[in-house]
Amino acid sequence: MKFLKKVFLTICILILILSISIFVYLQYLKPSYSSELKLPELKAPVDVIYDDYAIPHIYAQNEEDLFYAFGYVHAQDRLFQMEILRRLADGRLSELFGQPALESDKFFRTLSFREHAKLTIATTYKDPNSPFVKAAKAYVKGINHFIKNGKTPIEFTLAGIPKTEYTLEDMEIIVGYMGYTFVGAFSAEAVSTDIITRLGSDYFNDVLAAWPDSLYKIPVQKASLAAQNLAIISNKLQKMNSDLVFPPFHGSNGWVISGKKTKSGKPILANDTHIAFSQPSVWYEAHLECPTFKTYGNFLAGTPVPALGHNDFGGWGLTMFENDDADFFKETLNPNNANQVKYKDTWEDISTRKETIKVKDKPDVAFEVKKTRHGYLLNGAFKNVQNIKDPIALWWVFHQFPSQHLNVFYNVCKSKNVKDMSLAVAPLTSPGLNFMWGDTQGNIGWWAAGKLPIRPKHVNPQLILDGSTGLDDPQGWYDFSLNPQIVNPENGVLYSANNQPDDMGNGLVPGYYVPSNRAKRIEELLFTTKNDWTEESVRNVINDVKSSTYPAMIKTIFEDLKDNDLKKEGRDLKTLLMNWDGAHNLDDIPPTIFYRLLYNIYKQGLLDELGPEVFNAFEHNFALKRATSTFLKNTDSKWWDNVHTPQKETKNQVFLKALETTSSELVAQLGNDKTKWQWGKVHSIEHKHPLGIIPVIGKWFNVGPIAVMGGRETINNLDFSMDSTGMYKVTYGPALRRIIDFGNPSLAQSVNPTGQSGYFMSKHYNDQAEMFAKGGKRAELTNKKAIENVAIGKLILKP
Fold this sequence. Notes:
alpha+beta; 6-stranded mixed beta sheet; 24 helices
């Protein structure tokens, strides 16, 4: 017995020692916020002060030292995020995750970001004395110093990732990946072409050609087999995007209020970029300062200049332009030579490039990337479509020019007024971005930047085009002066909510613009006589969770339904819904009912014609969202009839069936007591880490789930996919909420969805998660004395 006790005691001691050792090791891996380090290639000492949210404030004596230090600091907090993002963009995830990542790797190899990065570095970076080139090289040097000398992140150990040097090409392929996430054509054009070729123009016009949002344009200063082929690709991409280890962009809100309408007498800028949530959070905050460069901004992993930010003179925000910068061309293969496609009266050779993908625990996979004059052929990247006749080529603005991304954003950081900003953003090619600006001089401005192609007048860019005739090819490029833009509008307010910009006299810019819900609500709140706006009152707008569009949809659904036609359950739902003001607070009941009902209407009306595969892709389609208001009003639409039944169903029959189904499903899900059907019970957010799937320990890396207010296309746009579960797990939303009053730009306010640190043991890994969920804020400090008052550490870097 004593022997067993000794054995048990020994085991307990060993477990305790092991646990303590693991804990000490994990503590050791925390980022170093207070120490003195040597960075051999520095020209002068650099101070890095960390504020109370672990945001670095970097003070250097010259720009090269500034970016060198920032590269080191950025890598210390986010090296794993940089690594996983460059592997994703480069098609090298299979090396870590094996066979499940192979299709993703093939797709991104096909998009050829590495090839494009080489072109960019050979052209855009050709002047070694250009300030942005020096900044990029110094930043990369700082990352590599940390890779060689810093602590190895725990994720590298758990996933078996070797540490390798970071390069300028890596930086550019990350830019390429971010451009891909902006392309709406992948999810839209397949469904559009499938509907018009398989079902006809009547079906197409009811849900795709409808344009109910013409009142909410941003003001300015004046092939069937191929469709099925692309539809398969689209559905695969939709699934792939939901599983990506770095999230795609989806939209954003941004507005600037002129000083004539604010209490401070200076402009106020508000911006919340809409991105799929992940952990670590997408944006990394930093304040960079030396005699020739001063910016506080939000940085993507692996990039040296911020995409969002401000300086002492002004600041800028971003939203997705949503312009259509990609077309799909159906190519015609030569029946006698599979390596040729038809173009006009001749057969042209397809160029090929061999690629080899290393797969964990499996043999290497070799495949060919093929390209025609129109672009890279997508078929080879996916199972079930690689051998389909008439392959699909992707024509994308991004591939037509070397990237100007770093050049553009470096110059944006140095802008002091609207003239500087206009010159800075003009060279941007792709992706299309809305830049909003405000400055201490009192100016406000907006530019929709990006190269806009001149398409033939007969071309409908929503549909797959014919690559064989040459008639559908782009004919050139519009000058930047014809891009939608406006400076100092008379009403004192400008905004973008991914809605359609008005034209500059040469027609509307084709694009994947979202419904007017957010635009309409922003106008309701901002286009008023109020002339004493403050940061606090603007924050009430950025956190707004009310839709003024959905109550009108409810009225449309019930306006032709007589109470005698409704069963008791339907009348109960009607009572709850008809009194709804469109708010999506945690304790609100109507949104829980509304989204169930809307999904069931979609399902009853569309599923029989589309089939499950296309229906799943279409449910979240921008065009369906935009057309829903008019679709619900269209009594004569062919969609209401179920093609699988002998009788002809009507709109009212579909609505009644959807009400009945909604009631029974909600009772089964949440019980008979309707007071328990609160929105907060079904609408939640979880920030998932790439290693969150690991059994047991994976939960340490994820943040949440947390119940959240907001909904689809409210200003606080916490979106989700709808399905039969009735659970609305947020997929994307504000990746930050930042507001700057240029009456005092040193006290800008922001919030991050989780935290600044990329290390799960740090308190700053999730110290903003609850604050974000509740609509809170904290300061973006740029005053050195104020930073020192809340500092948690100081890193001294010496040559």
